[in-house]
Amino acid sequence: MFEVSLLRAKLADLDSEQSDAARQISQAPATVVAKVGAIALLGVSILMLGAGTLRGWSHLKSIREGRAQHGTGLAMFAALFLPLILLFIAVLALIYIPASNANGLGRSIGTSLAFIAAFGACFWSIRSTWRWIHPRPDTRSTSAGPIVGCLAAFVVVAVIAIPVAMIAY
Predict the structure, then answer these.
(1) In angstroms, rounded to a whole number, what is the distance separating the alpha carbons of residues 163 and 65?
(2) DSSP label at 70?
């Protein structure tokens, strides 16, 4: 008698496990399709942003060469949107991934300085793009050469990296 009740309990457990497995199998294709759809949407979005960036730069070049007269603002937006979004995503990743084990004043100062540096890089890129499109014909080139450009890039990287180091350590 005891064995019969034990076998019935095992059979009930098997039935519940079978119904749970059937429910999971029926839900699996929907989650797989949703994940594949999200990945496909992300991939297409990145490709379209890249194509818009290239199209924006080609229009800026035609404006600089005098073949086009209008659309500077929209072309600048198209050309700089993806690089600036990637800049801010990188800054966020650099701040919030190491910041999970940081606290206090170093974290708040480091976060503020990193965002100030990112906004400075944003405005600098917009200004540089505008000056590239509309060069001043009456002035000589004010470029100091590749060494100064490398130093400026080093300063920008240092201004972003020092606050991240303050946050992480």
Answers:
(1) 41
(2) S
Q: Alpha-carbon distance 112 to 118, whole Å?
A: 10
pLDDT 10s digits, 118-159:
888 888 888 888 888 887 766 555 555 666 667 777 777 776
Q: Which residues does 165 contact at the CB level (< 8 Å), separation at least 6?
A: 110
d(CA 76, CA 85): 14
Mean pLDDT taken over the chain: 76
Number of domains in the chain: 1
Q: For residue 162, give both structure tokens.
A: 């020092």
Domain membership of residue 31 as a residue range: 2-168
d(CA 94, CA 111): 10
Handedness of CA 78, 83, 86, 90 (dihedral sign): negative
* Residue of 129, 156, 150, 14 whose CA lies nearest to 72: 129
The reported pLDDT for the residue numbered 34 is 75
The answer to whether the predicted template modeling score (pTM) of the entire model surpasses 0.70 is no
Identify whether the C-beta of residue 132 lies closer than 8 Å to the C-beta of residue 65. Answer: no
pLDDT at 145: 61
Contact between residue 160 and residue 91 where contact means Cβ atoms under 8 Å apart: yes
